[in-house]
Amino acid sequence: MNHKAKQFKVKVKEIKKIKSDIFLMSFSSAYLAKVAQPGQFLHIKVESVILRRPFSIHKIEKGKTKVLFRVRGRGTKKLSQSKKGIALDMIGPLGEGFKLSRKRVAREKKQSILLAGGIGVAPLVYLAQKLPKGDNKVLLGSKTKKDIVAEAEFKKLGFKSYVSTDDGSSGKKGTVVDLLETVLKGTKLAKETTVFACGPKEMLFEIAKVLKKYPKVNCQVSFEQFMGCGLGICCACVIKTKQGYRKVCKDGPVFNIKDIV
């Protein structure tokens, strides 16, 4: 177990539906507010479901932690039906999150591009809260306009937002990777430019293809992967990397893209 992770219980402060199948849950935890890092996750016990479910830390503000999730199966459906005041058992924060540069670089020489495919937006708002101000952008991809999540949150944090939709109902028609290619072509890249991405595995590999044209651009990706134990014991979430097989729950979920392709 991560040396900062522990098992604890919290009471749900609020749970609300923000899209037809997407929910935002919040609870107070002074411990998480103190130690959690962007990209880490919580392993939550859901009533009547055997295995815990992993959820990215979406946002932490004023001691309140928020989790954003899409209903995908029995566990997430049950969680979406939670009532205010119910106690949740969780383990966290778990995993290796995004690595933020500690180097002192002038603002104009530093740039961050956040990229989310669908519900991959979940860990990126907390990351956006922690990134230094500057020429920062966020690229949000979804199937349709009604599926776009958290755009207003990024704008409040000073990010310039770009949107792509599969059906063209908002922003650029096509995938968010197509959008990335367009944005990179039209952007004067800073000396230190980093892409932070989260979404389906296939999307992450497509990002790697685009970035081959931009070898100086750094890229960190957060994997969406099925997990069993969440603690690195069961090996249900392994992926192949250049250093051999790695566990997404323990060695990730965030990896340098150059280590996996």
Keywords:
single chain, 261 residues, alpha/beta, seven-stranded mixed β-sheet, 16 strands, 35% strand
Lay out the secondary structure.
Elements lengths: L5 E12 L4 E7 L1 H6 L5 E4 L8 E4 L2 E3 L2 E7 L3 H7 L6 E8 L15 E8 L6 H7 L6 E6 L8 H6 L3 E6 L6 E2 L2 H10 L6 E8 L1 H11 L6 E6 L14 E4 L2 E4 L6 E3 L5
Parallel strand pairs: 8-9, 8-12, 9-10, 10-11, 12-13
Antiparallel strand pairs: 1-2, 1-7, 2-6, 3-4, 3-7, 5-6, 13-16, 14-15
Number of helices: 6
Note the run of SSEs as H and E: EEHEEEEHEEHEHEEHEHEEEE
**Overall pLDDT, averaged?**
93
- Helix-strand makeup class: alpha/beta
How many beta strands in the DSSP annotation? 16
Mind telling me the C-alpha Rg? 18 Å
Distance between the termini: 27 Å
Beta fraction of the residues? 35-45%
Which percent bin holds the helix content? 10-25%
For the sheet with most strands, the description reads: 7 strands, antiparallel
Placed side by side, the strands forming the largest sheet appear as: 4-3-7-1-2-6-5
Low-confidence spans: none
Tertiary shape: globular
